[in-house]
């Protein structure tokens, strides 16, 4: 039986990126109307539940899918498909155990968790999201199996399916509950229950895709390692990554506790005022997360690609893949960072529906977060390079050191009434910039054949700068002409101009190479169209 056909790293990344684009469009149709239905206060409850859920989710699934993907990729590259089966079976048992514990914690301690976050009414949303922890663990097992073999299609399809059901069920439940109870807390819980139902649908789909794929794995003569040995290998990779990812999410939860406390005490706000301020910040974070999510397909695809190349001692190929991933990371992150920073106010006016003082605050928050998109991309990319080369502990140490600094900065800045909530994104920006720098230094010292990272990451700098000037100029022209009636026009025209300017400059300054395009679906046609 022939070996399963694999996608190229950028082909897989492209599939996930297209799925991410669709998911984010669906997500916009979900979260923006949702905020209108339940308000900033209810949206704050929604995000509080997500923050707690993400801590448990990171503990359960952050490291294991990566470890699973890496070990399956190694075994597949060597043709050891009995070992692939052993890794999958071992991972499945661990995932189920973690999922059950995580769900029990969220549902059993919903009131206590909400009180810790200084938002007691968020308990309903936390409780309704509880079952999703188990479902995500199940889905991570399937996704790790496919990603380890370089097949990103089931993951991308399941993400679209999940987003679609969340949109319909979540909004309907929020509307119905808000109409008949007028309870913001219960409406937020209904909205988040739609997330749980969507995860169930996605898990059923992935199960249907995984069974025939597992059954069709080639028959080989390799003797798999023992379950105990496989568990040790999985945990050796997963534990450092889990500590790093979960630690970052734990810091986010602690940060929320800190800045809410400072808003209530040093800021002199009432509980309702603090909840609304948090809701505005959370909405800005939602917009910030949209471009950040496009970094994830690159890292998801590049890890098994680099691992497979290193397993066969193809160090030159691994370096070329790392440099290509750096160029794509820069191509995506730099224009997004510049665009969000320049168009922060019109974007929040359009997506958040803000005006007056709330719009001014939202614009400042998003401008700071926008710059951070680039540093987020750098962190995601450098983490994967270090993990692929067996240095998974280094990003953990860097994250813990910089995360501690972030908490101190946030506590001090938010405690200043003249700065307030703006201190939270400033602390995040400082933290992410430091993590990225420390990761780059670590790669320079630890990786034998060092890829040219900064040169490739910053290759799109000039195109992004020209785009930023063009976007700012068009926006100022529209406001100068007093075209302020349509938020879509004020946002849409500058963005459209920016896209055209950026694409022209990318080709002119040769920020993308022909070999990058050739790894994409229809890459030869794309390279000819761009005259590369």
Secondary-structure blueprint:
Layout: H1 9-61, H2 63-77, H3 81-108, H4 110-116, H5 123-148, H6 153-181, H7 184-215, H8 227-264, H9 271-292, H10 296-311, H11 315-342, H12 344-352, H13 356-388, H14 393-414, H15 423-446, H16 453-457, H17 461-480, H18 487-508, H19 514-518, H20 523-529
Helix pairs in contact: 1-3, 1-5, 1-6, 1-7, 1-8, 1-9, 1-10, 2-3, 2-5, 2-8, 2-10, 3-5, 3-8, 4-5, 5-7, 6-7, 8-14, 9-13, 10-11, 10-13, 11-13, 11-17, 12-13, 12-18, 13-15, 14-15, 17-18
Structure, explained:
The chain has 20 helices and no strands. It is mainly α. α1 (about 10-60) crosses α3. The protein is globular and about 70 Å long.
User: What percentage of the residues does DSSP assign to strands (E)?
Assistant: under 5%
Q: Give the topology string: H per helix, E per strand.
A: HHHHHHHHHHHHHHHHHHHH
Shape type: globular
Helix content: over 70%
How many angstroms separate the termini? 39 Å
DSSP helical segment count:
20
Mind summarizing the main beta sheet? none
Question: Based on helices, strands and strand pairing, what is the structural class?
Answer: mainly alpha
Number of strands: 0
Gyration radius, in Å: 23 Å
């Amino acid at each position: 039986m022939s070996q399963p056909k694999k996608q190229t790293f950028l082909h897989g990344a492209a599939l996930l990126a297209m799925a991410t684009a669709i998911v984010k469009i669906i997500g916009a149709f979900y979260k923006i109307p949702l905020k209108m239905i339940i308000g900033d206060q209810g949206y704050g409850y929604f995000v509080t539940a997500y923050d707690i859920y993400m801590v448990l989710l990171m503990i359960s699934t952050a490291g294991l899918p990566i470890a699973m993907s890496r070990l399956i990729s190694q075994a597949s590259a060597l043709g050891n498909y009995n070992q692939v089966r052993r890794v999958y079976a071992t991972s499945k048992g661990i995932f189920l155990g973690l999922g059950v514990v995580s769900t029990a914690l969220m549902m059993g301690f919903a009131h206590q968790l909400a009180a810790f976050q200084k938002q007691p009414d968020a308990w309903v949303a936390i409780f309704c999201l509880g079952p999703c922890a188990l479902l995500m663990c199940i889905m991570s097992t399937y996704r790790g199996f496919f990603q380890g073999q370089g097949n990103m299609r089931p993951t991308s399809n399941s993400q679209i399916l999940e987003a679609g059901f969340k949109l319909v069920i979540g909004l309907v439940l929020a509307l119905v509950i808000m109409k008949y109870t007028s309870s913001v807390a219960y409406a937020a819980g209904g909205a988040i229950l739609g997330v749980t139902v969507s995860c169930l649908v996605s898990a059923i789909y992935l199960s249907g895709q995984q069974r025939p794929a597992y059954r069709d794995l080639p028959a080989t003569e390799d003797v798999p390692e023992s379950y105990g040995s496989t568990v040790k290998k999985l945990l050796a990779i997963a534990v450092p990554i889990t500590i790093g990812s979960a630690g970052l999410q734990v810091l986010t939860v602690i940060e929320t506790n800190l800045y809410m406390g400072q808003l209530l005490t040093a800021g002199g706000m009432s509980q309702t005022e603090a909840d609304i301020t948090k809701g505005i910040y959370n909405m800005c974070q939602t917009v910030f997360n949209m471009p950040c999510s496009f970094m994830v397909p690159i890292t998801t695809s590049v890890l098994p690609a680099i691992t497979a190349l290193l397993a066969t001692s193809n160090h030159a190929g691994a370096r070329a893949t790392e440099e290509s991933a750096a160029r794509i990371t820069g191509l995506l992150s730099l224009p997004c960072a510049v665009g969000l920073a320049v168009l922060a106010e019109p974007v929040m006016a359009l997506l958040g529906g803000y005006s007056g003082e709330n719009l001014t605050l939202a614009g400042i928050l998003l401008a700071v977060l926008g710059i951070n998109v680039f540093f987020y991309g750098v962190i995601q990319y450098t983490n994967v390079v270090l993990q692929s080369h067996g240095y998974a502990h280094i990003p953990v140490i860097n994250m813990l050191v910089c995360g501690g600094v972030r908490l101190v900065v946030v506590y001090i800045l938010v405690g200043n009434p003249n700065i307030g909530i703006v201190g939270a994104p400033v602390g995040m920006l400082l933290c992410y910039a430091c993590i990225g720098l420390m990761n780059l230094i670590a790669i320079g010292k630890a990786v034998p054949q060092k890829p040219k990272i900064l040169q490739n990451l910053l290759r799109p700098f000039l195109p992004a700068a020209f785009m930023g000037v063009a976007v700012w100029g068009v926006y100022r022209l529209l406001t100068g002409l007093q075209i302020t009636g349509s938020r879509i026009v004020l946002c849409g025209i500058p963005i459209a101009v920016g896209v055209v300017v950026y694409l022209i400059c990318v080709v002119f300054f040769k920020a993308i190479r022909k070999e990058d395009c050739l790894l994409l679906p229809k890459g030869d046609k794309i390279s000819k169209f761009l005259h590369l």
